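I am still learning, so can you show me any protein sequence you like together with the matching structure tokens, please?
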Amino acid sequence: MNATRTKTLLDYVYGHEQATPDQVYLTQPTGGGQVIDYTWAQCMDQARRLAAHLLSLGLPPASHIAILSKNCAHCFMAELAIWMAGYATVEIFPTEEPETIQFVLEHSESKLLFVGKLDNWAHQASGVPAAMPRIAFPLAPPNAGAQWDALAAAQSPLPGQPARAGDDLAMLVYTSGSTGQPKGVMHCFANVTRAAEIMAETIACGPDDRYLSYLPLAHVVERSYIECCSMVAGCHVYFAESLNTFVEDIKRARPTLFLSVPRLWLKFQLGVFEKIPPKVLNTLLAIPLVGKVLGRKVLSGLGLEHVRLAGSGSAPTPPELIAWYRSLGLNLMEGYGMSEDFALSHISTTEHHAPGYVGIPFDGVEVRISDDHEVLIKSPGRMVGYYKRPELDAESFTADGFFRTGDQGERREDGLLKLTGRLKEVFKTAKGKYVAPAPIENLINAHPLVEQSMVTGVGQPAAYALVVLSEHLRGQLGDPAERMRVEQELVLMLKDVNAQLPSYERLQMLVVAHDPWSIENGCLTPTMKIKRRQIEAQASERMAGWYGEQRAVVWA
């Protein structure tokens, strides 16, 4: 931890407030195509008033205050208010179940909860202790808490420039819990500020850049690249209204920097394929002049024609998918990071990128590969530690301070990193051979028929893959002829995938999932990573029957 560094994110924000008070910082949709623009001066006026209110409550110094909301302008304002009042923030994923909300609030010892835009507050409210004070953002559901606007009107803005020390706790980032209870990752002001500075400098963002904020702010990528980078560089941040208005939200923002996750990049692609068959589109894109015009038209339809840098992260992105977007003219780059290093790990650049690689280390990041191929990272964005889990701190770092990521990988001489699997995901079949699922899943996910896949088969004669078919196919499977066609294509895909694998990793079958995996049914984390234990548990009772069918494709 760097306790000597004095400039923090708050200092950058104070600078924008003084130098460009009338510049729009946040644009919030309010429904029906209407928006509210908040300048730096207006954002800070609101944040200062709520900071004054928080101080009036007499909470203990350095208290933790939670935020449960979909992304909105008041999430940023609330975080600034919490920081100015001398407290630390705890963002909770807006899709969490009541049990997880209760766990995070209790584990973090949060003293107050801000409630914002939510789709299922009536269900989630039971996870909030009855005695916990609540403040409702303007877009919050009815009866969610004391009204933000009324509290702001009743307070004078907190004056001056309240400072935070570099080693003060800025936030607790709770991991999304793909393998159990989420862990609270502690980050101090010095390290999150330094990480945001390095990111902003690396991607050269500034006041002329526009972001669309829609990935959960509880996730470290959105928190670092969007919120904290915008505080450092003064970018204009737009927010999405809803899933139904997402394309309109993108077109309103005209983003110059755009981040997404592989599943959404795939959905965008499949949406294009519904309008133009892939073979026709790819043929036209290969014609130099026609391809350039067509690629621009496709990107314009997605609202991405102004994007100078697009990023994909949170999970492996099929190289073929990245190559397809680049054929459209989109500068799509893959990156790598985690909660524990505030996402400051690896990034692809125009000079250093390759399909299947997640980039080179950010400035100041040290990397090495252990004897068992684990990626070890020492980052300026390093966490302080896990909240109330000192035993995990000891397990998570080497003696010389490198974080054990749990990811396996290999590096090229030029520093490009390729991830080859997860140490904890590697499993052994009945033949005594180890299988790394991630590289096989990447091969499967590259096929346009497949939306998601999971390779498993612990203790079985051979591994197998559960697959979720692409959304546009699922509604057509009632037609027996269409189902037969899809099955035949899956058989060919299985042969193609197995041809690329050593004999001990070859899949016995593909099992087509009956229902798509979602956050709601517990099969995906809030950041849309698959929950392997949950899916394996659901499959366990039927697995013997699937193996017994002795078919290349089984319909679950």
About this structure: The longest strand covers residues 403-411. The mean pLDDT is 92. The first helix runs from residue 9 to 19. Residues 426-555 form a domain with the GMP Synthetase; Chain A, domain 3 fold (CATH 3.30.300.30).
